[in-house]
Amino acid sequence: MDFMGPFTFNAVTFFIGAASLVPVILIFDKQRPDAAARKLLWKYGLIAGLVLFGASNLQQIGVDLTNSAGKSGFITGLYIILVPIAGIFMKRSAGKFTWIGAVFAVVGMYFLCVQDGFGSLTAGDWALFVGAFFWAAHIIVIDRFAPHVSALRLSQIQFIICGVLCSVVALAAENIVPSLLLAGWIPMLYRGLGSIGTAYTLQIIGQRYVPPSKASVIFSLESVFSAVGGAILIHEVMTVRAYFGCGLIFCGILLSQIRRIRTQPPGV
């Protein structure tokens, strides 16, 4: 964000993510889909890309406006609760341990991410809050679509859609300076290959086997990895409060994986 606007940053990184999947698809998904499968892929990819466009840009704008990674991480992480709530309306209610795990994760994220209190809500906070609904919607959309199409191709198409939409807004509303794009190539390459090309694709593959409510709780580990990674790589200070938050998140994930054990009668 020191070198370019949020839409420019997202446009470049999503195109990098889409390009990174080309060799992966050529190696692991050589069979070309027929006309019906292609139509379904583009339909699902368009919907997923639109939701991802809203989620990623609201988050990027919110982070820029709040200038607080901790607060941003906590507000964005509210999708942990929003996903099982949405499941109630979709007649896919989560189990009680998933709910307990979600509460543990949200409380843990508060202790980990929010160190100085919230204060008054700003425009950036509201952008992050609305973005949390988009992240929840993205998890639900992927849950619906992933089992029916190629995970790699769905991932690539959503990146292309998101990149195109970001490019349109960036060209219309932001000042794109090529020299500044080059200055920010390291974080762009990292996000394009790692966060987008690898992580979002693994999300689609993983959600083929994991219910969305549990997936949302597992995703809360993102805040733990970012905090611990910051402490190790750039020597940020981890407080006792932050470690306590990490512990709560980890407990929440373990709790969300507990399944109800039904007692069977003898001899069964």
Distance between the termini: 62 Å
**Helix share bin:** over 70%
Order of helices and strands: HHHHHHHHHHHH
Count helical runs: 12
Percent of sequence in beta strands: under 5%
Radius of gyration using CA atoms only:
20 Å
Contiguous runs where pLDDT drops below 50 for at least 5 residues:
260-268
In terms of structural class, how would the helical and strand content be classed? Answer: mainly alpha
Which shape, going by the Cα principal axes?
Answer: globular
What is the tally of beta strands? 0
**Biggest β-sheet strands, sense, barrel:** none
- pLDDT averaged over residues: 84
Describe this entry's structure for a reader.
With 268 residues, the protein is mainly α. The protein has a domain of 178 residues. Helices cover 76% and strands 0% of the residues. It has twelve helices and no strands. α11 packs antiparallel against α12. The chain is globular. The C terminus is likely disordered.
